[in-house]
Automatic annotation (TrEMBL):
It comes from Rhododendron griersonianum. GO terms for biological process: amino acid metabolic process. The keyword Transferase applies. PANTHER family: ASPARTATE AMINOTRANSFERASE. Residues 45-131 form the Aminotransferase class I/classII large domain. Keywords: Aminotransferase, Pyridoxal phosphate, Transferase. GO terms for molecular function: pyridoxal phosphate binding; transaminase activity. This is Aminotransferase class I/classII large domain-containing protein.
Length: 131
């Protein structure tokens, strides 16, 4: 019986990145945060104002609520704008604590200001627009 040896040929694949990738610059807030971390590690007292990272631990009531939500099966993606329940509670908070009125359909929950600001700018600005 003759043994057949498979022939394996290397396949060249041209993976090109979008020119947009080359225009991406490092985040200035991350660079400043890195500098602040280095200063803290060197023993310098620092008040961090560069990024939206809290300077306190997650309050116990919030941590417990998060763990309970996981235990109760709330582990799937939510609607893009946030759940109606959350947006309603945000409306209540804004009314009670800030004296401003919104309806849940006027509220959008996001994972941070950078994402929201970028998406808003991209929605209304085109290449070449003066901002």
């Amino acid at each position: 019986m003759k043994r057949i040896t498979p022939v394996v040929r290397a396949m060249e694949v041209d993976i090109s990145l979008s020119p947009r990738v080359n225009s991406v610059k490092p985040s200035k807030t991350v660079a400043i945060s890195d500098q602040a971390t280095a200063l803290v590690q060197a023993g310098v007292p620092v008040i961090r104002l560069a990024a939206g990272e809290p300077d306190f631990d997650t309050p116990t009531v919030i941590a417990e609520a998060g763990m309970n939500a996981i235990r109760e099966g709330y582990t799937r993606y939510t609607p893009n704008a946030g759940t109606l329940e959350l947006r309603s509670v945000i409306c209540d908070k804004l009314k009670e604590e800030n004296g401003i009125s919104y309806t849940p359909d006027q509220i959008l929950v996001s994972n941070g200001a950078k994402q929201s600001v970028l998406q808003a700018v991209l929605a209304v600005c085109s290449p070449g627009d003066e901002v």
